[in-house]
Design goal:
Blueprint (H helix, E strand, L loop, with lengths): L1 E5 L7 H8 L7 H15 L6 E6 L13 E3 H11 L3 H13 L23 H4 L6 H10 L48 H13 L5 H9 L7 H13 L3 H12 L8 H13 L3 H13 L6 H12 L6 H14 L7 H11 L4 H4 L3 H14 L5 H12 L6 H13 L6 H14 L2 H13 L6 H13 L3 H15 L4 H13 L3 H14 L5 H14 L2 H14 L4 H13 L3 H13 L7 H14 L2 H14 L5 H14 L13 H12 L3 E4 L6 E6 L5 H13 L20 E3 L7 H7 L17 H11 E3 L5 E6 L2 H13 L5 E5 L2 E6 L2 H10 L8 H4 L10 H4 L23
Antiparallel strand pairs: 1-2, 2-3, 4-5, 5-6, 7-8, 8-10, 9-10
Helix pairs in contact: 2-3, 8-10, 9-10, 10-11, 11-12, 11-13, 12-13, 13-14, 13-15, 15-17, 17-18, 18-19, 18-20, 20-21, 20-22, 21-22, 22-23, 22-24, 23-24, 24-25, 24-26, 25-26, 26-27, 26-28, 27-28, 28-29, 28-30, 29-30, 30-31, 33-36
Length: 870
Amino acid sequence: QIRFSHGDRTWAPSFLIQAIASPVSPSPPSLHRGINKTEMLLSRAQELSPFTLYLSSNPIPPSPNKALNFPMRTALTILRSLAPSHCHRRLLRTLSLLNPSPPLALSFSGRRLSPFPRLSNPAASSAPSSTLVEQLAYEAEGARADENWDFSHNSEAESFDFDASLAPTELKHLNSSPLEVKELEELPEQWRRSKLAWLCKELPAHKPKTLIRVLNAQRKWITKEDATYVAVHCMRIRENETGFRVYKWMMQQHWFRFDFSLATKLADYMGKERKFLKCREIFDDIINQGQVPSESTFHILTVAYLSSPIQGCLEEACSIYNRMIQLGGYKPRLSLHNSLFRALVSKPGGSSKYYLKQAEFIFHNLATSGLEMHKDIYGGLIWLHSYQDTIDKERIASLRAEMQLMEIEESKEVLVSVLRTCSKEGDVEEAERTWLKLLRSDGGLPSQAFVYRMEVYAKVGEPMKSLEIFRGMQEHLGSTNVVSYHKIIEVLSKAQEMELAESLMTEFIDSGLKPLMPSFIDLMDMYFNLGLHDKLESTFIQCLEKCRPNRTIFNIYLDSLVRSGNLDKAEDIFNQMHGNGAIGVNTRSCNAILSGYLSCGEYVKAEKIYDLMCQKKYDIESPLMEKLDYVLSLSRKVVKKPLSLKLTIEQREILVGLLLGGLQIESDEERRNHAICFEFNENFGTHSILKRHVHDQYHEWLTSFSKPGDRSDDIPCQFTTISHSYFGFYADQFWPKGRPVIPKLIHRWLSPRVLAYWYMYGGHRTSSGDILLKLKGSQEGVERIVKTLKAKSLNCKVERKGRVFWIGFLGSNSTWFWKLIEPYILDDLIDLLKAGGQSLDGTSETQDISFDRGSDSDEKASDYSDDDGS
């Protein structure tokens, strides 16, 4: 197809002009006449009205910013004048082989010419003489997609602000081993040529299961060379998914011999389409064969991981980058160094600080490779050091000295990073010197600079100076933000300046800024330390009215009630925490109430708390343990043995619901011990609440690395249980061969609690109020679940999207489903998940699901993309 649209510039491909002006070999007179005519037409390009010529076989219009701009009349004249000439096709082919990846390769779809040998097209070979338009379209079909270096920049205020030129698009060709495949006409048997042409035509049009059946039917005659031809043909016509399936089918045949060139080419194509799971699968195949992947595969796989927003992809990108240097011995391109470094520091500072060693490794590689060091590499490294818990002042000083030696001016971000280090060290002198530099710099002062300066003076015991800086910030910037209010209230609360802290809290509430919770916690801590329990209680009640409650404020209030001797109210608060799945209890809560019971002589209740702490494996404080030993010796003749781990009925039902929603189980090689891998999406509001409840439910089963500290309220998005044989039943039923299946006895386990946790973990509510449940498994398993739901008077529809099934409760059916599961939904999730409301957690995953066509449709849909691999 040829599409014309207005462009903003007028130029011709320099590659074509250079090639035509300097022919690589003698050519017939007719060719020289065509060349002279072309030169004349191209020389008039600037005089004609600009248009953009798009040449693509894809029905989707190419991106405007990737098109080559041509004058329309010039382009049409070139095509018309050169159309009958076959020698031009040979010239174009020769030039593309000599210079496969110039800065402006001749590709009207914005793609570069593919370097691997072309295979003959059966349809084209039977056609009459090909025109230049057909030739260009044929070449463009095999063009590889440009690497997209436009990684999304985090808009957090505390993320490092990079120069846009740090990660430029690098179009240099990455060398890979050539792939040699016989031309179709070189095959001696006519029947083999016909069958291969038929396979090349039919396979891309079939669904995956049908494709495998078609290939299985060819086993009697097909050879490795034949299958390789089909796979390469699919890559050329951009049916890379089909080529991947053909490759995986080849690996299962008795005649298969590993082909490094084919694996490399396919891995590169899958990586360029951002199918990082499939690219990684082929990458691992190469490693398992005892070979080292090519530089292009390392490069492209790293870029594919960096382009994905899925959790864990950045860590995988770092791993591939490190193996590229340490295993492959390659020297990555400058753009790859810069892009990975930029991704490391594009997250908020609190999460980026863990990537310091990786950032230092990239810096070392840049320095030892003699590559150009961008100024923001220095700034980003200083920024990472400033967020560390222990500041390396010598390293920061050496980096600043190198910047001064290279005559790199310290940017505003670097100066703010230096202020951050001063705030942690209490270095007033350096902070003031940095502040003066900020005042002399162009542009306004960043709000973070005021906050860190407040913290510096708070560190040296001058809270009133911090208040003065806060008021100066209000005058200078005309307003204050949430972070500054949090900091000044924290400073005054720690200094126990009660009246000032209360007045600023009132000012903060009246401003309408949120969140208020951190400041409420600071005030309650101040009241607790001052022994003002009445004020603490009133602040607690005010906090419940204005904020969603969390475990931290409940623990402070519980400690206050125990210390003031109000044990009855403390018991009510503890029971309220224990009964609310979104809040829950932890080691601190149990120790607080246990201390109250032991102090008041409530030994029976103390024993119950002790049993709960033993079950959840909470640590008992040493002073309490001494009293508890005496109490237990009075009531128990035999010392109680440690409780053996065993799932309760509630834990079993929750686990079944989460497994249906997509929870994974990891097993050892002998399948004797199994671990449950809990993973929650930090971008889902439902998951951020559910993860705390699930963490508390399985606390006694979790590894020590999955448990936060007693004073920490931060639950990780990923945590795992210990590897235990007790989970063998669930592994055999739901993950028998490392892949999710639907058990045959699932109809016995679909209780309302199971359905509720399935919905909270793997379900969605649409904008129209319908309820969708996500499920992986076989068609037969889905039918068993649907039959069981209908037996409960729950009518539903099923839509298939690749390997994922979506069970939909539409209209009034969603209301009946909600009434069934509502008693088991967490209180804080009722408004988010209630049927008939507006969706708050809509995802692109569910936007194109429609139940109007019936079930089991669209088997080739995007579930085969790598996004589902999360």
